[in-house]
Amino acid sequence: MNTSEMKSKHKLLKDYSYELGEIEKGYTNRTLYVNLSNNEIKEKPVTQFMKDKFIGGKGFGLKLLWDATKPQTKWDDPENEIIISPGPIGGITQYAGAGKSLVVSLSPLTDIVIDSNVGGYFGPFLKFAGFDALEIQGKAEKDVIVIIDGKEGVVRIEEAPEEAVDSHILAEQLTDMYAKSENKKNFVSVVSAGLAAENSNIGVLNFSFYDKKRKKVRLKQAGRGGIGSVLRNKKIKAIVAIADGIKPNNVVDLDAIKECGARFNKEMRELDDDQCRMKKEGTAHLVEIMDDYDLLPTKNFKYGSHKDIMNIHSSVWRSKFTQNVFDGCWIGCTMSCAKAVDGFELKTGPYKGDKVIVDGPEYETVGGLGSNCGIFDADHIIEANFYCDTYGIDTISFGTLTAFLMECYEAGIINKEITGGLELTFGNKDAAIELMHQMARGEDFGVIAGLGIRKMKKYFAEKYGADINFMNDIGMENKGLEYSQYVSKESLAQQGGYAMTNKGPQHDEAWLIFMDMVNKQIPTFEDKAEALHYFPMFRTWFGLMGLCKLPWNDVEPVNNAETDEPAKVPEHVANYITIFNAVTGLNIDKKEMIRQSERVYNFQRTFNIRRGYGLRKHDAQPYRAAGPVTIEEYESRSERYDKQLLENIDVNPEGKSTEEKVAILRKYKEDMYEQLLDAVYQRRGWTQNGVPKISHLKDIGMDLPEVLEIVEPLQ
Amino acid sequence: MKKITVNDNILKWEENMNINVILQRMNYTFRMLVVKVDGKLVKKNDYNSTIVYPDSDVKVIHLISGG
Ligand code: SF4
User: Fold this and answer.
1) Using one digit for the tens of pLDDT, what is the confidence trace for A18-41?
2) Which domains are seen in chain B, by residue range?
3) Which of A101, A197, A485, A548 is a Cys-bridge partner for A123, taking CB atoms 3.0 to 4.6 Å apart?
C-alpha cells in the first residue's frame, strides 16, 4: 500500500485550528494540550511564574506532569502524560547542539518521573509551530497519530490503521505522507516507538530528521525509562510536526550568539581531530579508552576490560561509519557526531536481507549490546542497534538486562527450560538477538526480559525461588532503571553520580570517574559532595534549555588547560550564559545558572517524594556498582583489592580466604557510600533522609506551597 | 629506587623520562589531558622535550568527555 492509500484510510477524530504566532525571546508563551481519551485539544498560556521557576524543557515537563497527575497515578493510567519541550534556546541554529527536546513522563520501570534528552528536529519544529511544550494525556481506543501542522496552524488527531509500527518504516511513511515534495521532507519530523515498545517496559521514542544528503530518515532516541512503552500504551503510533521553514527565535542579541558560535566552530575545525574525533567516530571514540582504564563494562559489570577489545575498537567504528558527511542531529551542529552505518545488510529477524541505515552505534550501545554481554562482534552490535531502534527499545536497558540474564543463566538461576531454549551465556550473540525479536513479537522469554531487571528479580525469586540477595547484588539497577555503561567500582563519587540521581543511574547528571579515580582531584567526602552538587546542577541546565551536553566538553578551547577549572570548561560555560542572555534578554551569571537548575532539581526530588520515593533508601546501589560480588571478580583484580585492604582498611590480606576478603572489603565500601550520602545531602541542602530542607528551598526560591506541603512532614 | 609521583601514585623514575614516557607507563591513553609538573603547566607540544627529574610531582588531569 502506498502512502496516499494509507492516508485515505485515516479517520479524523478531531481537528483544531490556531493562530501560528511568533516566538519571542525564545518562548512562544503557550503550550499545547492533547487528550486522547476525549479528543480535547487546547492551548495553555505559559505564565511568567512558569518561566521564572521552571525555565523550559525538562522544567516545563515536570511542572505540567505534577499538575496533571496524582501521587497514585501509574504509568499506564490515562492520566499519565508524555510531555515534550525544547526549552528557550532550543531551535537556534547559530550554536552547536541547540535542537534537543526533553521528554518527561511517569516511567513503567521506576514508577517515578523519567526525563530523557533527544535530538532530531521535532522539538524545534514544535516551537516553530507555536508551542513551548506538547502535553499528551489520555488513551486512544485505536492506533492514532497526532499531527501538529505548523504551516497551516492545525492540530489533528487521526486514526491510522495501516501504517507500520516499527520506526524505520513508519518514520519514512509519515515523512513521505506529510511532505509536500522531496525538498520539503526536511521540514517533517516524526516521533514514534516500535513493536517491542508495546511488549516491554523499556520502550524508547525515536525522533526523526530527514537527511537530505542521504535522502533517508534518521532516528535519534529518547532512550531512558520506557517512554516509548507509554506512547504505545496510549495507542499513539506517531506524533508528526510539520514546519514552514526555520523560524527565528526572535532573540535579543543575535550577534552575540553568532560570535560564540563562530568561536566554537573554529575549535571544531581545528581541534577535533586531536581531541575527541567526534566528527569521525562520535562517542564510540571512547570504547578503547574506557577499556584502557578498566571502565568498559564486561560480563554484567564484573570487569572493566577485555582481550578482544580490538574487535570493537573506535577504528572499527570509524571504518564502518560513512565519513565526510554532515551528521548533525540539528541544523548548525558542527560537532556532527550523529554517525551512521549506511547500506547495512540485516542477517536476522523480519527485515532480514534488507539494506538499511543504522544510526550509531554510540559508546553506550557498544558497551550495552556488546562488551557487557561478552559480545565482541561489531556487526552483531550494528544489527542489534538497528533492531533496538526500529522496535523502539533502549539499547542501554536492553544491554544491561541481557547481561544480568546471562549472569543469572551462568549462575544457574535460570536455565534453558525457563528461557524457552535460549542459551543465554555470555558471548552468545544469537541468543541475545533472538531475545530481542521475541520482545518485539511479545512472545516467550522476551516478555519476561522486557519487564526490566527490578521486576525480573522479583519474578525469579517468587517463581523459581532464586536468591534475591545475590540478584540484588548483581542486578545493575537503581530506582528500577538499568545502569548505563561505565564501571563505577573504583570511583566512589561516580557511585553517587549514578545512584543519587533523580531518575535512576544514567550518567547524564554526573560523570566523575576521571576526576575521582584517575586524577585524585576530589579526595575528601566534602570534595566529592561539591562535585556531586555542581555537576548534576550544571548538567541539569542543558535539559532546561534544549541543549546538547556534548559540545560543552567534547571539544575544548586551546587554552582550556590554563584556566582555573579546566574540568568545567569555563569558556564554554561563559558561551552558554551569553547565549541564554542573548536569547531571553535576561542577565544571569554563573551563580544564577546553577540556581535555575537547583530549583528544578529540588522540584523533581520532591516529585519523587510525593510519589512515595525520593528518600535515602531509594539512593541505595547494587553492590556490583561498588565492589566485587563474586570470588572470580575479586581474584581477577586481587592485587588491587588486596592493596585496598592493606592501605585503606589496615587489614593484612595475607592468610585470608577470598571469601573473607570480599566480605571485609564490602563492609568498608558500603560504609564509604553511606558517608558519601551524608556529605552530599548536606551539600545539596537536604536532610539526612534525602529530603530538601525548607530553609534551602526558601534560599533558592523554590518554597512553593505544593512543594512545602510534601516536604514539611519529613523535616 | 628513584621515583616520581603521578596523580598520587608512585612511579619508578627513569633516565630521560619525558611526559610521553610517563603517559605510556601509566597507560594514560586519553587525549584530553592537562599536565603539570611541580605545578607548572606543560603544553602538549612540549611533552617530548620536557624531562622529569626524581621526586617530581606530576599531575595528569584527565578532563571529562563523553559521559
Ligand atoms: S553534538 Fe552530536 S548529539 Fe549533540 S546535537 Fe550535535 S550531532 Fe546531535
Assistant:
1) 999 999 999 999 999 999 999 999
2) 3-62 (3.10.20.30)
3) A101
Assigned domain for A12 exists: yes
Residues A83 and A210 in one domain: yes
CA angle, A623 then A626 then A632, to 5°: 75
Q: A562 falls in which pLDDT band (50, 70, 90)?
A: confident
Q: What is the CATH number of the domain that holds A405?
A: 1.10.569.10
Pairing of strands A355-359, A481-482: unpaired
* Per-residue pLDDT, A134: 98
> By residue range, what is the domain housing residue A702?
492-714
Q: Band of the pLDDT at A481, cuts 50, 70, 90?
A: very high
Nearest by CB: B32 against A283, A520, A556:
A556
Whole-angstrom distance, CA of residue A335 vs CA of residue A357: 20
Residue A269 lies in a domain: no
Average pLDDT of every residue of chain A: 97
* pLDDT at B64 > cutoff 80: no
Residue A472 lies in a domain: no
Query: Using the beta-carbon criterion (under 8 Å), do A507 and B67 form an inter-chain contact?
Result: yes
pLDDT tens per residue across span A509-532: 889 999 999 999 999 999 999 999
Do residue A54 and residue A149 come from a single domain?
A: yes
Are the beta carbons of A627 and A658 closer than 8 angstroms?
no
Q: Could you tell me the three cell numbers for A126?
A: 514544535
My answer on whether A187 and A236 are in the same domain is: yes
How many structural domains compose chain A? 3
B32·A521 Cβ contact <8 A:
no
Which CATH number fits the domain that encloses residue A137? 3.60.9.10
Q: Which residues of A touch B34 (CB under 8 A)?
A: 560-561, 566
Q: Are residues A219 and A306 in the same domain?
A: no
Interface check B24 vs A, CB under 8 A? no
A540 and A652 share one domain: yes
Asked if B62 has any chain A CB less than 8 Å from its own CB, the reply is yes
Examine the fold and report which residue of A390, A422, A448 is the final residue of a domain before the chain moves on.
A448
Cβ–Cβ under 8 Å, residues A60 and A86 = no
| Cell matching residue A113 | 518521573
Residues A289 and A406 in one domain: yes
Percent of chain A with pLDDT over 70: 100
Tell me the average pLDDT across A257-277: 95
CB-based contact, B39 to chain A, within 8 Å: no
Residue to substitute in A219, A276, A283, A337 for testing ligand 1 pocket (most ligand atoms within 8 angstroms of CB): A337
**For the CA atoms of chain A, what is the radius of gyration?**
24
Q: Do A519 and B7 touch (CB under 8 A)?
A: yes
Contact B31 A553 (CB under 8 A): no
- Boundary (domain end) residue, out of A417, A448, A479: A448
CB pairs under 8 A between A and B: 65
Q: Report which of A167, A130, A426 is spatially closest to residue A303, judged by C-alpha positions.
A: A426
Q: Domain check: are A236 and A281 in the same one?
A: no
Does residue A280 share a domain with residue A233? no
B62 vs A contacts (CB less than 8 Å):
514-515, 518-519
- The closest alpha carbon to A269, from A334, A338, A339, A337, belongs to A334
- pLDDT, average across residues A689-697: 98
pLDDT at A389: 98
- Going by pLDDT thresholds of 50, 70 and 90, the confidence category of residue A561 is confident
Asked if A102 and A57 count as a contact pair (C-beta separation under 8 A), the reply is: yes
Euclidean distance between CA atoms A88 and A26, whole angstroms: 4
Where helices occur in A31-105 by DSSP H, the ranges are 48-54, 58-68
DSSP symbol at A686:
B
Handedness of CA A627, A630, A634, A637 (dihedral sign): negative
pLDDT at B67 > cutoff 70: no
Q: Do A292 and B62 touch (CB under 8 A)?
A: no
